[in-house]
From TrEMBL:
The keyword Repeat applies. This is Armadillo repeat-containing protein 6 homolog. GO terms for biological process: hematopoietic progenitor cell differentiation. It comes from the Eukaryota. InterPro entries: ARM-like (IPR011989), ARM-type_fold (IPR016024), Armadillo (IPR000225). ARM repeats lie at residues 285-329. Keywords: Repeat. PROSITE patterns: ARM_REPEAT (PS50176). Gene3D superfamilies: Leucine-rich Repeat Variant.
Length: 462
């Protein structure tokens, strides 16, 4: 069981080391850390460098207190900006500094300050007020990195108010960055923000496509709203969020893909659309021109991988899958697999894409074979023998290509597929051995399946 201590306990031990054992500050800190780690204490939330003032407070505590006083007395903005810079610099050091700032009340101070300055900005939209709001938003973003629990309903209301009323793109970018930080690993924040009808704001922001930075941050917020990464919540609403965002944004994302076909923005668009295609009808509504896009970005793995994942998502709809294959994408996919064979992530994504396109479609498997997919798949399995995702997705691709068209077996056998799969079974048999054996079975290779349940000859009571 992991043990934790308070910051005060840690500080006291360090001070004792200095006063009682005549250690230097560095020696005292090193000794204290070693002592606590030997006892199994988790020090991730402890400020170890002890940036102490002449008194008993940490610099971060002094800064928060000064900010509070300045906000109450309404002193000049320059003094406030200096303290914000200090607070931001301290919070950037590590999570322990951010936790300390949060406990000292930094979030409420910054939230109140943002609300006040936002009202001032709406009355007088000058550069000084704009820069001040951006500074506070950035400070909030840094403070809440890895501790999104600080967000409350007041903060969500301010987010929504800014998105509803502000046209300044720099302020919008800073606000979107704050929202993204609050959505990471926090299901309740995502649900609260989504409930503010943020979808309408995101749709409007996507229309400002000439500002690539704003578009990139908008796409990131969309993806963050569809995450399911909060282990504290048993059932989240990632699917519901993705569905509702997809209903409103799929066509808009299609249009944006036509405008932006070069990295890095095209990769973000592909990732975002993939995240939203969670239902059969949404796949049918999406119409990305992927064959031409892939051909134009042939050498870029940062485009090939997300494009392959998007095709995999679209192939969940059988009608869409057939349209994709008819569009002439098969030779492009095979060529990409050969081109990016040294990249395990891209290779795994393309193999999964081939698997999805060939599922329940014998004619598709035949087209892939005719375009040299068998050679490329076997080569991928032999190159990335230690990469589980490549081996597993390769097994699926082989199985789906031959399951309904056994005439392909001879081609794979000639290329040494049986040896490659047996080697994969030796390494990953415990993880996905059934998938490997299923591929061997459909290839008509020698394979022995284990009986999962065996009767013991015991009479069952009636």
């Amino acid at each position: 069981m992991v043990r934790v201590i308070t910051q005060d306990t840690y500080d006291e031990v360090v001070k004792d080391n200095i006063e009682e054992f005549d250690m230097t500050t560095e020696e005292a800190i090193k000794e204290a850390v070693a002592q606590f780690e030997a006892q199994g204490v988790d020090l991730s939330n402890i400020i170890k460098d002890l940036a102490l003032s002449s008194g008993n407070n940490h610099l971060i505590s002094i800064t928060v207190e000064k900010l509070k006083e300045i906000c109450q007395t309404k002193d000049d903005d320059n003094l406030m900006l200096n303290e914000l810079d200090t607070l931001m610099a301290e919070c950037k050091k590590d999570i322990a500094h951010r936790i300390r700032a949060g406990k000292e009340g930094a979030y409420n101070i910054l939230n109140d300050l943002l609300e006040t300055k936002f009202r001032v900005y709406m009355q007088e939209k000058n550069k000084q007020n704009e820069l001040f709001i951006i500074k506070v938003l950035k400070c909030l973003t840094v403070l809440m990195d890895m501790q999104p629990d600080l967000l409350d309903d007041k903060g969500m209301e301010i987010m929504k108010s800014i998105l509803d009323t502000v046209d300044n793109e720099n302020i919008l970018i800073a606000t979107l960055q704050w929202i993204s930080t609050c959505c990471l690993r926090h299901e309740m924040n995502r649900q609260g923000i989504f409930a503010k009808n943020i979808t309408a704001n995101l749709k409007e922001l996507l229309k400002k496509s000439e500002n690539k930075k704003l578009l990139s941050e908008t796409l990131l917020v969309i993806r963050r709203l569809t995450l399911d990464d909060d282990i504290r919540v048993e059932f989240g609403k990632a699917h519901e969020h993705a569905r509702d965002l997809g209903v409103n944004l799929v066509e808009t994302l299609d249009d944006l893909l036509k405008e932006h076909q070069r990295p890095p923005l095209v990769g973000e668009l592909l990732q975002t659309q993939t995240a939203l295609l969670v239902r059969h009808e949404l796949c049918a509504r999406a119409r990305p021109a992927l064959a031409a896009l892939l051909a134009d970005n042939y050498d870029d793995a940062a485009v090939a991988a997300p494009a392959a994942r998007l095709i995999t998502a679209l192939a969940g709809n059988d009608d869409v899958k057939r349209q994709i294959v008819k569009s002439g994408v098969v030779p492009v996919i095979v060529s990409l697999l050969k081109r990016h064979n040294n990249n395990p992530t891209t290779t795994a994504s393309i193999l999964k894409c081939i698997s999805a396109l060939c599922l329940r479609e014998a004619s598709h498997g035949k087209m892939f074979i005719e375009n040299g997919a068998a050679e490329a798949i076997v080569e991928s399995l032999n190159v990335h023998t230690d990469v589980a995702a490549v081996q597993k997705n390769g097994c699926w691709a082989v199985r789906n290509m031959v399951a309904r068209y056994r005439e392909h077996n001879a081609k794979f056998q000639e290329l040494g597929i049986e040896a490659a799969l047996n080697k994969a079974y030796e390494k990953f048999g415990h993880d996905f051995g059934f998938d490997i054996k299923s591929a061997l079975r459909d290839l008509e290779c020698d394979v022995k399946f284990d009986e999962q349940w065996k009767g013991k000859g015991v009479q069952i009571d009636q």
